[in-house]
Design goal:
It is built from 16 helices and 18 strands. The protein is α+β, with helices and mostly antiparallel strands and 515 residues long. The longest helix is centred in the N-terminal third of the chain and has 28 residues.
Length: 515
């Protein structure tokens, strides 16, 4: 059972080392064969009944595809991300195991004469034996999915181990083939977390302090301002369900965002005549409604009706059914708002090329994934970006100058690090998340783009991240255009950013769903 690659490696050793290596391999092969023979000769109706069924279920990864579908249907973002990462890990692992490893290691399959006929695999494999592709794919899915949602780790790894054992029990593989497959699957799944980092949420920060508010059965006292065109018409599509859930809710429809009309006055007026202001629209509409609700001291209820629903998701008001239940219950919490030059934002503010970067990334991320979309956005923006000249004062009060290509300010600390933020663990930590990236030369741009592709931009020496309650910056080469929550604002040559701690009361579920 010695393989050609092993023979080549032995030939490079000294005669003494070569003898030792051959001795070790003989012992390993003997143990491998002994375990295989012991399993094959075990008379067990339980193994005869279950092992062929399990190994057939794992053929062509059918078992894992079904489990991925179940995870996706749960609606939980962690489960959905786990399904995607698990399937991607399977695809890569299967390619490496079947098209690379099996071609290099030409190990023959074990003899099946000792295996009971009723226990034999339904399809007798004809490919080489090392490693076990079924085992590699099984562990790749288990490790990939549980990386996103750790609660899956034990059940999925146990199931993967049983699939691996079934390959030995049905006569398809030696035990070492299975172990090698497990190692390959674990390694590929781990490598995917380096290319696309797992979103880590601090469980100690993941819940707002929620208190009882005023429950409502029919929506009386609530005014909903809605932009029907937001999210490619998604906002308009939720209206029938919202009207059914809250028949006495007052509804004020706005025109399409970007049409040039300012709807601030309409939203401000709506806030003066209700007990709760509800909003359904894009980030710009939500930001304006948050400002109005804060001014009037009334709760804000956010329906998930935009394209990305950043604020709604971080509040736990997603999907629509959850938002409706929370509004019925009336539970409320206090959250922070960000402010730049006297105007608030609920998610992010940015200066310079970051506005273009976000617009391009979000346009393509649902088609090609956020990491690849970030790479494409970086290539489009960094090449033509005008560096933002920033002047701040050090601890001694002396001016310090720097130049950044991308600058981002988040209301609250985002995860993960880098320029593809996904989620805020908490919305009441009284912090602004400042991230900057300084790119000037062609070589540094290429390195940043590579780091974005591999998920390592947070380790790039040109990337810096800060967390504080306020920032003061001069922009000597300005004015620069500022954007708040993706909406372009005024031109500025001075930036004054601060957090407004627990300034806004929001409707939120009694316990937000973990993401």
């Amino acid at each position: 059972m010695a393989r050609a690659s092993a023979k080549r490696s032995v030939s490079t050793l000294s005669p003494e080392d070569a003898r030792r290596w051959r001795g070790v391999r003989r012992q390993v092969n003997a143990l491998d064969t002994a375990i295989y023979d012991a399993v094959a000769n075990t008379k067990s109706p339980l193994l005869d009944a279950t092992m062929p069924v399990l190994t057939r279920a794992a053929d062509k990864s059918k078992l894992w595809i079904v489990i991925a579908g179940i995870l996706a249907l749960t609606g939980r973002p962690r489960a959905q991300r786990g399904a995607v990462r698990g399937l991607i890990s399977i695809a890569i692992t299967s390619l490496v195991a079947n098209q690379v490893s099996k071609r290099i290691h030409r190990r023959p399959r074990p003899p099946i004469t000792q295996v009971p006929v009723q226990r034999l695999a339904h399809r007798i494999p004809t490919s080489t034996s090392f490693p076990s592709g079924h085992s590699a794919s099984a562990m790749a899915f288990a490790a990939g999915a549980s990386a996103e949602w750790p609660v899956l780790s034990v059940p999925l790894r146990v199931l993967a181990s049983l699939v691996g054992f079934s390959r030995v029990a049905t006569g398809a593989h030696y035990p070492s083939d299975v172990l090698a497959g497990f190692a390959l699957g674990e390694t590929i799944a781990w490598l995917t977390t380096k290319v696309v980092p797992v979103e880590h949420v601090d469980a100690t920060l993941d819940d707002l302090t929620v208190r009882a508010g005023k429950p409502t059965a029919d929506g009386e006292g609530i005014t909903l301002v809605i932009n029907p065109q937001s999210g490619s018409g998604r906002a308009g599509k939720i209206l029938p369900e919202v009207r059914k859930a809250f028949p006495k809710m007052r509804i004020v429809e706005l025109g399409g965002e970007g049409s040039g009309r300012d709807y601030g006055e309409t939203i401000d007026e709506a806030a003066t005549t209700c007990d709760v202001l509800a909003v359904a629209g894009g980030d710009g509409t939500v930001q304006r409604a948050a400002s109005a609700a804060m001014s009037q001291g009334i709760p804000l209820a956010v329906f998930p009706a935009g394209t990305f629903n950043h604020f709604a998701k971080d509040l736990g008001m997603y999907p629509l059914k959850t938002a409706i239940e929370a509004i019925h219950a009336g539970t409320v919490a206090k959250v922070d708002l960000g402010e730049v030059n006297g105007k608030i934002f609920v998610n992010t503010a940015s200066v310079g090329a970051y506005t273009d970067f976000v617009a391009i990334r979000e346009k393509y991320e649902h088609r090609i994934g956020k990491p690849l979309a970030a790479v494409y956005a970086a290539m489009k923006t960094l090449g033509r970006a005008k560096a933002v000249h920033v002047r701040v004062k050090d601890l001694d009060g002396q001016p310090v100058d720097a130049r950044f290509s991308l600058m981002f300010i988040g209301n609250g600390r985002y995860e993960p690090r880098g320029f593809a933020p996904v989620h805020r663990a908490t919305l009441d930590d009284s912090r602004l998340d400042l991230r900057v990236l300084g790119v000037t030369r062609l070589a540094s741009r290429a390195r940043v783009i590579l780091d974005m592709f591999t998920g390592r931009v947070a380790r790039n020496k040109r990337y810096q991240q800060f967390s504080d309650a306020e920032y003061e910056m001069e922009l000597p080469d300005g004015p620069y255009r500022i954007a708040r929550d993706g909406e372009l604002g005024e031109e500025i040559d001075h930036l004054s950013a601060k957090v407004l701690p627990r300034a806004l009361t929001v409707i939120t579920p009694a316990r937000r769903k973990k993401r």
